[in-house]
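Pilot study result, target chain (108 residues):
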Amino acid sequence: MDLVDIVAAIRNVATRLDGVPRELHVQAKEYASAERDYRIALRQEMLKLRSEGFPATLIADIARGNVAELKFKRDLAESLFKSATESSKALQAELSGLQSIYRRQDEV
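Predicted structure:
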């Protein structure tokens, strides 16, 4: 790899890193919204089951089963947020490695 290729790779990674904060913000917002929707639906379902006279020991399990789709969406949003965070860390590590290679090549 010559210096021109290394500089081009560094610019490429830096450009990709520029979009990371925006993506993290979007993913965090989607995760928070999914969490809110799930908790609201779970609370409403528990109150509904309580008013229908279900035994208190079963309400939590039944309610969670009834709102399982929202929990799935919440878990998926959480995974996407964590994935975006890890992707950001990987890009930062790649950039650091390229910068180290650049410094070594420049010394030679």
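One observation from the pilot: The chain has a mean pLDDT of 93. A full batch analysis is planned for the follow-on phase.
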